Records
---
Amino acid sequence: MTDSSRICSWKIAFALDNPIRRLIHDPKKILGGYIEPGQTVLDIGCGPGTFSIAMAKMVGESGKVIAVDVQEEMLQIVREKAARQGLESRIVSHRAILTGLAYPRRWILLWLSTWFMKCPVLKRS
């Protein structure tokens, strides 16, 4: 996607992270069975960090969350929330470009191959 007009502006980040949304899309209920302490998880399109913050709590002190977004302002919101909650050491923010993640392709392939080997959804029958 290269059309930046299709990206939700950071100026309305409050609409993406509010108590009503967290009630309907509770990150702990959605991801709790898949994320464990010590893991490193990737949140692509993290926005204001609704899921990034929740995942940082789930991975614990020995885990990491890589929060990726195309808007530096959204990443700044995530960093500020993490700092307020004492989670800044668990979250690594990464600014992507509109046409990709701006990571070397071999890193993404390594991550995907690791994810597929460990994916609990694929292991469950």
---
Amino acid sequence: MIFVVQLIMFGVTTLRENKSKFNALSHKQISGGNNMKLGVFSVSLNVSDLNASKEFYENLGFKVFHGEIKLDFLIMKNENTIIGLFHNMFEGNILTFNPGWNENAAKIESFDDVREIQRQLKGKGIKLENEASVDTSGPASFMLFDPDGNAILIDQHV
């Protein structure tokens, strides 16, 4: 019994130490001078039944914010959390960032242009699946995959 208590106490102490180290590391990383302003974040879900998905997410407190069933997509919000439901428009699910927008799809004054984000990522040697034209301004997008194959879309609408 004493061994179990000692083991539990060791675990709690180790968790506290690791949390402290993690918090220090996170602060160090966040306060670094290399922050990209990616814009509002959402998850774009590929759904097979848009009505069933809409009802499910409404039961979790989400409300339709944009889109229509007849257009095969809905953007839903629960406070500042955003999900996109897309009926068979793409394979898999996509992590989406929208530079220049806030969570209400309103333009923000200060943001990193999609082409600048693209330039920074390429400068770090990150492979892009496709690229935004550097000869344009305004709306553009590009896509990349993280090391586990998760699709990431940087999609600027302004």
